[in-house]
Structures are given as structure tokens and as C-alpha cells.
């Protein structure tokens, strides 16, 4: 009995020792086309499942990147589930090219089912099971063609006008004054409520907010819970529950669809029809729902789940990045003083309209948005390979492997940035510096001092395309496209900075000071600091 207990105690340590030897032997092997090694573990069969379940994927993968990052690619296992962690931009690009497609793949379908509540009948159609050629074409039309039709060019400009008008009206209705400051103690909560209301109104119309009074509250409870969701990973390893707020939203969306999107001819999408309807929403939403409603298997619950996916994509793409762009601008007086008059040029004071299309072409604003995306956005890419994938001469992934990569890991990887564009790391990657994405022209060089040489000029992503491919690969952002996200973020900053004056209240978050430390997470929310106070007043014309 004593011998049995001794073996039981020693066995995990022996397993860990042997798995450690095997791991580093594979890492240091000179062989070509190796399969990535599994990081050390205590229990064969279970592997890393206990740690994933205890810490959650966000924290556990962050720990692994810190401990084994120099040995990537490496394998993490949770029972039968296998994830290969990638850190090399070239490896990530190979995987993305191997799994590129227009409609959701197997990993995305896992998210559609778990996070958005799509029924099995719809998941089967997306997977191609029992789907006719016309059904597959209709799904591609909804996911690829309609975003191009409505969320780019003139159609996008019209939708952005609706959003900017709604945001301006909402903020001006708050009774802010011209001379006296109003202090908002928790600016993040205020910001997310205001922006979410306006984004939903721009896409879904105003009726849905009146009919579902708790929609905003339910959405942000849901969003907080799904922030730690990792596509492809077992639900048992997740630490938060999101079913209750999700199901309440789905019920509300079903009622809204029955009230305003019922019948065979509910969509008003002819040229004579308005671009936006307060009851039915935008033309994009109407036509997309019309296409899906005509497909067998897309019942009202399935359509509600599609609506939730759009709502989530919209808000995750717009709200957090806009918030952090505004905060970073307010932290630096020179940014505020420089950007505000430039943005004002795109605002017609008589009509109150904004030229957001022109605004999005402003090089300095483009650089601010990219730097915000780099520093404050943390996506998780998961792709399952349909065939073997050769990463380089040393490493190869087998068919069926699930590759994982994290955008924030790349964002803070100094050697990668130094290799891609050496001048991009003239200031540390831990700092907010839009100059990473600006190439100074001769005029700028003559006008600026040596210290501020890279604060103006031409916006460029040259040399950084491979790194940023991961930032824009997230299914949430891809659903609606980057052009819409850029336009709505620019409109958000334009309304706040043109029509209002804002100041940060806390001394510790002003220029020259680092933001309060945030939890070490591989993906998800990178620390929205509660009680971040901001004072605001109307800007005198």
C-alpha cells in the first residue's frame, strides 16, 4: 500500500520530468518538418486541462507565452483537444492562407453555436451538410457581397451620418453646459452605454431600444462574459457563463423580428426607400435578414442569432478601440491641441454634418487608430487545418491541428517589429506612439524638431502587413469589415472632440505616466479601468 501511494505521488513528477526532456529535445532538434512539441505536463491523457479550467484560457495562455514563448511553436493539450501556439508572423500567415474562406469555418461555427446560440440546423448549413448550391451561394451573398454593397463607399457614408447624428444628439441631450464642467466618475460605463445605443440605432433602428428596454444592460453583461471565450475550446474549460443575458437578448430580438421583419416582403431596399428605417433598421440589415429568412432552416431563433452576431461584431469593433483612442488623446495635450482643429475642418457647423470619409483619410488619425488597435486590442485567432501545412523548413502542422495566435503577443514582440520596420521601435512598444505608422516627408522634417520628427507625415503600413493581418483576422471584425470600423471610430472621435471639451481627472493617467497595470491576459479585455473620471463641457463655437 505504501509503495502504491509512493508511486502515485511520484508518477506526476516523473511524467513532468520526461515530458520536459521530450519537449526541449524536439525544440532543439535540427530535423526538418518537425511537428511542434507538447509543453511539459503532470498527467498523461489530461495534459493541461486542469490548468486551463482553473486559470481560464486568457490567463493560462499568457503564462505559457511568457514561459515558453521563445520555444514556439508549441502544443497545448486539454484531453483530446490540441492547440498549436504560433508566434512567428510568417507561420501565422501560412495558416491564415491555408484556412481562408468567406463563410464561417468549423471553429467559427463553434462560436456561432456557443456564443450566439445558432441552432444546429443553421450550423449544418454553414458546414455544407445538406446545403444546396443555391443555399451556399445565398450564405456567401449574405456574408461577403452585402457587406461590400452597404458597408463601403457611399452607402457606408450614409450609415455613418446616421450614427454621427445619433451620437451628437445623444450627447447634447445630456444637459452638459458651456462654461461649467460636468464630471463623469466612471467614463467607461458612460461611454459604452452611449456608443452602444447609437451603434444599435444606426444598424437596427430606434424601435428595438424602445421595445427591449434592458437590451444595453443585457448586452454588456453578455459581452463581459464572452470576453474569455476561446473558439474551439470545450465549454467546460470556460470560467464565465453568458447564457442568461444571451437568451434574454435572443428573446428580445425574436420579438423585434416578428414585429418588424415578418412576412415575405418586409425588406424596403429599393432605391426609392430611405437608407435607414426607425423600425426595420438599415438597408444592410433588412436585405441580409431577407436573404437568410428565405433559406430553409433559418427560423426566427436562427435569424435572431445572426442579429446578435452583427450586434456583437459592431460593438467589439467600435466601442473599446474608440474609448482607448479618446483616452490616449486626452492623456497628451499636444495630441488634443493638434488633432482637434484638424478634425474640425471636416465638420460643417451650419448643418452639423461630418465628412467622415475625408476624416478617415487623415494620416495622423489613421496612425492613432492603428496604434490604439496595436496596444489596446487583443484578438485570438484559432484555425483548424483541412490539410497538412508547412510553416517553414523546420516546422509542419498536421491535418486537423488547431493553430492559435494572439494579436497582443505580436503587438508587444520587439524583435518582430525591429526585424519588420526598425524605426517603429524608436519608442518602446509599451508606449502609445502613433509615429510608428508615419513616414515624415521633407516638409515635416524641416518643420519639426528631432524629438518630434515622426509625429507627422504619410501614414504607412509598409513592412507591417504581416503583423497586422492577425489584428484584422478576428471573425467579429471580419463580419462587417474594417472600413466600417474605421469610419465609426473616426465619427466617434469627431463628435467628442469637435462639439465638446474633455479632461482626464486622475493625475496618474495623464501624459508621461503609465496607465494602471492591467491583468496579464493573452486575449480579451485589456483592463477597462473602473472609475476613470473625465470632466466634460460643451465647446464654445
What does this structure look like?
- By secondary structure, the chain is an alpha+beta fold.
- The protein has two domains: 2-85, no CATH class; 98-538, Cytochrome p450.
- The chain is built from 23 helices and 13 strands.
- The chain has helices at 2-28, 49-55, 57-68, 89-98, 106-114, 120-126, 133-150, 153-172, 187-204, 207-211, 215-226, 243-260, 283-293, 300-331, 333-344, 356-359, 363-376, 407-411, 414-420, 442-447, 465-468, 475-480, 482-499, and strands spanning 74-78, 81-85, 182-184, 276-277, 281-282, 380-384, 389-390, 396-397, 402-406, 438-439, 458-459, 500-504, 534-538.
- The strands form five sheets. The chain has a four-stranded mixed β-sheet. A three-stranded antiparallel β-sheet has the order 3-13-12. It has a two-stranded antiparallel sheet with strand order 4-5.
- Helix 8 (153-172) packs parallel to helix 23.
- InterPro entries: CYP450_sterol_14alpha_dmase, Cyt_P450, Cyt_P450_sf.
- GO terms for molecular function: heme binding; iron ion binding; oxidoreductase activity, acting on paired donors, with incorporation or reduction of molecular oxygen; steroid hydroxylase activity.
- Pfam families: p450 (PF00067).
Amino acid at each position: 500500500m505504501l509503495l502504491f501511494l509512493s508511486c502515485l505521488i511520484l508518477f506526476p513528477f516523473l511524467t513532468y520530468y520526461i515530458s520536459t526532456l521530450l519537449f526541449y529535445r524536439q525544440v532543439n532538434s535540427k530535423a526538418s518538418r518537425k511537428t511542434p512539441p507538447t509543453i511539459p505536463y503532470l498527467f498523461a491523457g489530461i495534459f493541461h486541462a486542469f490548468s486551463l479550467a482553473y486559470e481560464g484560457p486568457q490567463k493560462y495562455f499568457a503564462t505559457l507565452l511568457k514561459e515558453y514563448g521563445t520555444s514556439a511553436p508549441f502544443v497545448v493539450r486539454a484531453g483530446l483537444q490540441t492547440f498549436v501556439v504560433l508566434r512567428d508572423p510568417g507561420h501565422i500567415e501560412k495558416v491564415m492562407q491555408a484556412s481562408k474562406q468567406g463563410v464561417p469555418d468549423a471553429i467559427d461555427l463553434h462560436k456561432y453555436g456557443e456564443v450566439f446560440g445558432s441552432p444546429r440546423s443553421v450550423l449544418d448549413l454553414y458546414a455544407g451538410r445538406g446545403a444546396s448550391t443555391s443555399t451556399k451561394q445565398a450564405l456567401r451573398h449574405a456574408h461577403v457581397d452585402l457587406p461590400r454593397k452597404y458597408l463601403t463607399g457611399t452607402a457606408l457614408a450614409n450609415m455613418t451620418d446616421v450614427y454621427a447624428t445619433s451620437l451628437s444628439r445623444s450627447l447634447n441631450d445630456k444637459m452638459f453646459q458651456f462654461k461649467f464642467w460636468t464630471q463623469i466618475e466612471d467614463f467607461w460605463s458612460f461611454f459604452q452605454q452611449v456608443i452602444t445605443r447609437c451603434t444599435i440605432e444606426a444598424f437596427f433602428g430606434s424601435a428595438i431600444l424602445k421595445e427591449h428596454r434592458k437590451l444595453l444592460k443585457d448586452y454588456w453583461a453578455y459581452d463581459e462574459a464572452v470576453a474569455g471565450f476561446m473558439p474551439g475550446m470545450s465549454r467546460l474549460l470556460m470560467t464565465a457563463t453568458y447564457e442568461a443575458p444571451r437568451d434574454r437578448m435572443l428573446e428580445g430580438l425574436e420579438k423585434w423580428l416578428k414585429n418588424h421583419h415578418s412576412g415575405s416582403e418586409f425588406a424596403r431596399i429599393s432605391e426609392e426607400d430611405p437608407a435607414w428605417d426607425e423600425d426595420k433598421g438599415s438597408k444592410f440589415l433588412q436585405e441580409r435578414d431577407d436573404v437568410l429568412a428565405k433559406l430553409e432552416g433559418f427560423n426566427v431563433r436562427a435569424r435572431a442569432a445572426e442579429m446578435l452576431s452583427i450586434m456583437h461584431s459592431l460593438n467589439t469593433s467600435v466601442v473599446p478601440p474608440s474609448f482607448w483612442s479618446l483616452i490616449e488623446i486626452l492623456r497628451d495635450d499636444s495630441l488634443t491641441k493638434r488633432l482637434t482643429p484638424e478634425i474640425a475642418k471636416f465638420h460643417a457647423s451650419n448643418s452639423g454634418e461630418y465628412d467622415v470619409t475625408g476624416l478617415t483619410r487623415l494620416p495622423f488619425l489613421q496612425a492613432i487608430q492603428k496604434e490604439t488597435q496595436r496596444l489596446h486590442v487583443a484578438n485570438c485567432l484559432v484555425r483548424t487545418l483541412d490539410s497538412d501545412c508547412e510553416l517553414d523548413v523546420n516546422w509542419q502542422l498536421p491535418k486537423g491541428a488547431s493553430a492559435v495566435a494572439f494579436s497582443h503577443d505580436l503587438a508587444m514582440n520587439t524583435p518582430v517589429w525591429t526585424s519588420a520596420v526598425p524605426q517603429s521601435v524608436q519608442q518602446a512598444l509599451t508606449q502609445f506612439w502613433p509615429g510608428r505608422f508615419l513616414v515624415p516627408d521633407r516638409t515635416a522634417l524641416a518643420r519639426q524638431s528631432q524629438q518630434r520628427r515622426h509625429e507627422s507625415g504619410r501614414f504607412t503600413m509598409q513592412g507591417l502587413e504581416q503583423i497586422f493581418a492577425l489584428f484584422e483576422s478576428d471573425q467579429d471584425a471580419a463580419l462587417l469589415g474594417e472600413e466600417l470600423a474605421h469610419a465609426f471610430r473616426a465619427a466617434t472621435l469627431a463628435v467628442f472632440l469637435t462639439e465638446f471639451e474633455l479632461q482626464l481627472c486622475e493625475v496618474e493617467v495623464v501624459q508621461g505616466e503609465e496607465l494602471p497595470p492591467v491583468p496579464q491576459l493573452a486575449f480579451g479585455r485589456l483592463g477597462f479601468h473602473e472609475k476613470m473620471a473625465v470632466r466634460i463641457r460643451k465647446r464654445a463655437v
